[in-house]
Design a protein that fits this description.
mainly alpha, 167 residues, 0% strand, single chain, 5 helices
Length: 167
């Protein structure tokens, strides 16, 4: 039986799941989700054609190709089964009263809240650093003023001592 991969089922899977399937079939693991889906579809499409090629190879006495074709076809049937199972699980979550759209909206809301919280924390840290810098600058200015006053007092005392000694 030829595999019947549904693109919607594959697109419903997570990237990690798609990469696991690609790894299982010895396919390239890199790329975005659409590339992984396309790669898996192409693999299974060639596996669906493989039994026909295997029949030709059998007629020309090439049993290794027939075995390879049979394995590829079984692999794609397994992918079809996994995609169907994923779709069934998604369907069950919809039946439990939470639609896919609601779940996606809730996830987007959670991400927005996390982003807002992170931005608020970043702004608070920046404000704290700025306040510490202002405080340090004030303390340095006060210390500079104190040292200048001490130096002036010492200079005034020296000048007064010299004037007194000159009398």
């Amino acid at each position: 039986m030829a595999p019947t991969l549904d693109e919607t089922q594959l697109k419903g899977m997570k990237v990690a799941e798609l990469k696991d399937l690609c790894k299982k079939f010895g396919l390239k693991l890199t790329g975005v989700k659409d590339e992984l889906v396309s790669r898996l579809k192409a693999h299974c499409k060639s596996a669906a054609k493989a039994p026909k090629a295997a029949a030709k190879d059998k007629a020309s006495a090439k049993p290794a190709s027939a075995k390879k074709a049979k394995t590829a076809n079984e692999d794609c049937q397994a992918v079809d089964g996994e995609a169907t199972e994923h779709a069934k699980n998604s369907s069950e979550s919809v039946q439990e009263g939470k639609s896919v759209a609601e779940a996606k909206a809730a996830e987007e809301t959670d991400l927005a809240v996390e982003a807002k919280t992170a931005e608020d924390a970043r702004l608070a840290a920046e404000e704290k650093a700025a306040e510490e810098a202002r405080s340090t600058a004030k303390a340095q200015a006060a210390e500079d003023a104190r040292l200048a006053a001490e130096a002036k007092a010492a200079e005034d005392a020296r000048v007064a001592a010299e004037a007194k000694a000159a009398e």
